[in-house]
Amino acid sequence: MAGETYEVLGLGNAIVDVIARAEEDFLQRHGLAKGAMMLVDEQAAHKLYDDMGSATTISGGSAANTIVGLASLGIRSAFIGKVKDDEAGQSFAHDIRRSGVHFATPFAKEGASTARCLVLVTPDGERTMNTYLGACQNLGPDDVDEALVRASSILYMEGYLWDPPAAKQAFLKAADMAHDAGRQVALTLSDSFCVDRYRDEFLHLMRTRTVDIVFANEHELKSLYQTSDFDTALAALRDEELLGVVTRSADGCVIVSHDQTVAVQASPIDRLVDTTGAGDLFAAGFLAGLVRGCDLRDAGRLGGIAAAEIIQHYGARPNVNLASLAAQSGIVL
Amino acid sequence: MAGETYEVLGLGNAIVDVIARAEEDFLQRHGLAKGAMMLVDEQAAHKLYDDMGSATTISGGSAANTIVGLASLGIRSAFIGKVKDDEAGQSFAHDIRRSGVHFATPFAKEGASTARCLVLVTPDGERTMNTYLGACQNLGPDDVDEALVRASSILYMEGYLWDPPAAKQAFLKAADMAHDAGRQVALTLSDSFCVDRYRDEFLHLMRTRTVDIVFANEHELKSLYQTSDFDTALAALRDEELLGVVTRSADGCVIVSHDQTVAVQASPIDRLVDTTGAGDLFAAGFLAGLVRGCDLRDAGRLGGIAAAEIIQHYGARPNVNLASLAAQSGIVL
């Protein structure tokens, strides 16, 4: 396809992560389901923050993390998301732009503050997320820049966009524009509880070919097809006849298309610190491979390499240049 | 000594660190001296921030880091420092309190914003710091809580307090109160450029016994005595006849008193990531040993253990419970 200015455009909730270590009993005391993302209002967010430990603040947001990972892999990337013109919003914009991503969504000048995700990391490296959506609630179809969508080879969007009131309209509008320009549209299912909230709508997106590529982890896939059996869920995904990419934590990933099933091992790590962003960075590596014409196995390997980097430190933005890691693995992007 | 509520009280500049990786040429382009702390005004801080990479925000401040390290070692600790009642100031207060430190200095309600230190970490793990003092400029003698000073076994203060206009008055007032209550007073020389700015005053503090314990790294010690020869500088420190603690990065530390010279090796590390806080955390470990009656060698070992933890990740606040690390080393606190 000719005329792409960007290789991947992301659309998602623009969020600043506030990360602290927490013991298991902290989760219990606050009634938090380990590993999940829960939506909280501003008051609940304040209450939780007051009780959590000393924190590190790093820009986050699922699709935004993926797009920053893509930029770190040397992929021309852009992002659409809504922050307020406050300290956290300025940080978010600074960080994503200085990561090499084109980001030009207008700041909200009034209303709720920039979204925060209070991330609690337990000693097992698992993260439990509590999101105050704030300014993301102002993301709507008007924020979708048509020229940008048309100029991007792949449009990548998160299931979490079903949470704020108007963001799904932005999602659907962007998907239409992308397909009209002959581009591909990818969806990440985001979280098993998110799948539970919007199962029928996500299946509809897949079955109407509103999306061409679907990313899910094992839990999300099982939730989507309401089964506890992985193979049953995988077979159901294969029957959708789109490109399905399923991550399985330490067991690597499985990629299914109408005519292929490819399993790829996980990349080795020295030490698991914080799983925040594992799925986001896997998607970054995979999309980098896909957009640059790698085969599915190498795309899966790239996903594993990017995910392995992110889970060995706090936060979901890469600490090193991922393009160097990819080059070390022998995969030419 | 009876009646101590706290074992160590810190007095220092309350700062939030904004940390980003940077290549060597970034330092050159901005005329920054690697490894040093430079004071910048608000405008220069904004300009530098705009050009630096994606950042992680973590509470910092030299003496504050030391005090948090002490709390992590299980030492009853308190801190005096000035932040504004803004987002960064609220974070600073949250983080230090949630680390187990008593912190009750009134927030500045107006004037300059909470201090930031823009920290640039080069690939060699060295950090270069650019500090906008902001609300620290409002720290003064009125912030020194006499009951708190009298109730603390050791008062630990930073040379950086000579930078804001009124903080040295707070330092001198607190030192007087501490000595009046039979407590010990410790000074860290902070930075070789800081020593260069205030050499005569720091020597005066030492020679008038305004301080009983001095922490310095090799560069600061050489700057203090204006010599390029370490042994000459160490001999001069020994002649001051107070307790001198000198850190030498990978070469460990040397502790001198009127009748002893003790050299202690550095703790081994797997990977150097960011030296920010190495000296601060060394001081935490050493003071923990000192206040709990360890011998100088074990105090030096504790310093090394705490420093080794901090330089293996970004930021100058511990990522793990330091008391557990100390216990693993076999030193009973």
Q: Which key features would you list for this structure?
A:
UDP-N-acetylmuramoyl-L-alanine:D-glutamate ligase, alpha/beta, homodimer, five-stranded mixed β-sheet, nine-stranded mixed β-sheet
CATH class division of chain A: Alpha Beta
**Secondary-structure arrangement, i.e. CATH architecture of chain A:** 3-Layer(aba) Sandwich
- Show the largest interface: A-B, 28 and 28 residues
Q: What is the 3D shape of chain A?
A: globular
Give the C-alpha Rg of chain A. Answer: 18 Å
SSE order of chain A? EEHEHEHEHEEEHEHEHEHHEEEHHH
- Average pLDDT across residues of chain A? 96
Broad structural category of chain A: alpha/beta
CATH topology (fold) name of chain A: UDP-N-acetylmuramoyl-L-alanine:D-glutamate ligase
> Into how many domains do the coordinates of chain A divide?
1
Describe this structure in words.
The structure is a homodimer of 333-residue chains. With 333 residues, chain A is α/β, with parallel strands linked by helices. Chain A has a single domain, classed as 3-Layer(aba) Sandwich (UDP-N-acetylmuramoyl-L-alanine:D-glutamate ligase), CATH 3.40.1190. Helices cover 38% and strands 21% of the residues of chain A. Chain A has helices at residues 24-29, 42-51, 62-72, 87-98, 146-150, 167-180, 192-207, 218-224, 230-239, 278-291, 296-310, 322-328, and strands at residues 6-11, 15-21, 37-39, 56-60, 77-80, 102-103, 115-121, 127-132, 152-158, 184-188, 213-217, 243-247, 253-256, 261-264. In chain A, strands 6-5-1-9-10-11-12-13-14 form a nine-stranded mixed β-sheet, with helices on both faces. In chain A, strands 3-8-7-2-4 form a five-stranded mixed β-sheet. In chain A, a hairpin with a 4-residue loop joins β13 (253-256) and β14. Chain A is globular, with a radius of gyration of 18 Å. At the A-B interface, β4 and α4 of A face β4 and α4 of B.
